[in-house]
Structure formats: structure tokens, C-alpha cells
Design goal:
23% of the residues lie in helices and 18% in strands. With 198 residues, the protein is of the alpha+beta class. The chain has a 5-stranded mixed beta sheet with strand order 3-2-1-4-5, with helices on one face. Strand 2 and strand 3 form a beta hairpin.
């Protein structure tokens, strides 16, 4: 029964009961699983892109992380973006027993994109826009963010090329030197594919 669950983590109690030919009732399967060593617990399934499960991708990620570790923390600038919706609100509240909390809230709302450039010391630049985070929008925000960067800093961008939003590895961002959309790049260099730190 345990080996069947290890092979397929979404197997139901009824299916597990069938594995042992009904010798354990479906309603008591969870009790047996809790006694296993180590015990089985309910977990949230983590979805990953198929390429992320390949050894080639993992080896590349380890190389990339090894390169990041060599950069001093106070010289790193991290950039990322996230969607923000106009109807976001706390999901929980407190009220007296027997009294529901009801509020008017639209199911659909306008979407914004929050861009943040941050160092160890704090936020260098942020931008809230109602445009999608496509290549042109990311370049526009990057150009505005250049003013807060210092020579010798390293800009670490997320993997935008992987998600299909980046048309090339090094879009042209010219103020003070080109900036790459992904990877780690020295701010004091005119960055081409040869200007990548690692």
C-alpha cells in the first residue's frame, strides 16, 4: 500500500484499499499511513515546468547559483515583477460569533504590474503600471531604474526568456551601458553576450 502511494501521490484511500484487496477499509487507510516510518502527510503539489525536472536544467541552475554566490551581497541588485489586482483585500477578518463578515467586492478587477529593483540596503526603484510585463515595458522600467545603480553593482534579472516575454538574451538598454533582461550583469560594462558575469 505504501509503495503504491509512493509511485502515485494522488492515489485515493479507496484505491489504496483495493491494493490490499479490501483488507483495510478505505476510511482507516489514513490511520495506517500515519503509522508509517516516516509517516505520510498531506502536502501541496509543486508544479514545475517539464524542463525543470531534467538533469541538464538542474545542472545549469547549480552553475548559475554558484556564480551568484561569488558576488558580494552589497553589490547585488535584484529585479522582479508581480501582478497586483485592484480588488485585492484581506481574506480573513474577526467578528463576533454568529456574525458573518460581508463586503462588496467585484469578482474581476483591473490588473497592474509592480516592478521592483532592490539591494540589500533597500528598494532602489519601483514602478506600478497598468501595462503587461512584455519586453518593451520591462525595458522602459529598466531605463528609469538605471539612475539608482552604481558602477560595480551587479544586476540580477529573473528568467524572462524562459517565459517567452524576452525576444533576445540582450535587449538594447542604452543609458549608462546596456542591461540584460536575464542573468547577472555588471552595471559598469557595456553589456553584450561577452559582458555577462557568468
Amino acid at each position: 500500500m505504501c509503495s503504491a502511494l509512493e509511485q502515485n501521490s494522488t492515489t485515493t484511500n479507496r484505491q489504496l484499499s483495493a491494493v490490499v484487496h479490501g483488507k483495510i477499509a478505505a476510511r482507516t487507510v489514513s490511520d495506517y499511513l500515519a503509522r508509517a516510518d516516516p509517516p505520510f502527510t498531506t502536502k501541496v503539489i509543486q508544479d514545475q515546468e517539464p524542463e525543470e525536472l531534467t538533469e541538464e536544467w538542474r545542472a545549469g541552475a547549480r552553475r548559475w547559483l554558484g556564480g551568484v554566490k561569488k558576488i558580494r551581497l552589497d553589490k547585488r541588485i535584484y529585479e522582479d515583477e508581480t501582478p497586483v489586482f485592484a480588488n485585492e483585500a484581506p481574506k480573513r477578518g474577526r467578528a463576533r460569533r454568529g456574525t458573518p463578515i460581508i463586503r462588496a467586492r467585484f469578482r474581476y478587477a483591473k490588473k497592474y504590474t509592480l516592478h521592483v529593483y532592490a539591494k540589500r540596503t533597500g528598494v532602489l526603484h519601483w514602478d506600478l503600471s497598468d501595462r503587461n510585463a512584455d519586453t518593451k515595458e520591462i525595458e522602459r522600467v529598466a531605463i528609469d531604474a538605471v539612475g539608482g545603480m552604481k558602477s560595480g553593482d551587479t544586476l540580477i534579472w529573473d528568467r524572462l526568456g524562459r517565459s517567452g516575454r524576452c525576444e533576445s538574451d540582450q535587449p538594447a538598454l542604452q543609458p549608462g551601458g546596456a542591461r540584460s533582461i536575464r542573468g547577472a550583469w555588471r552595471v559598469d560594462q557595456v553589456l553584450t553576450s561577452e559582458g555577462q558575469v557568468f
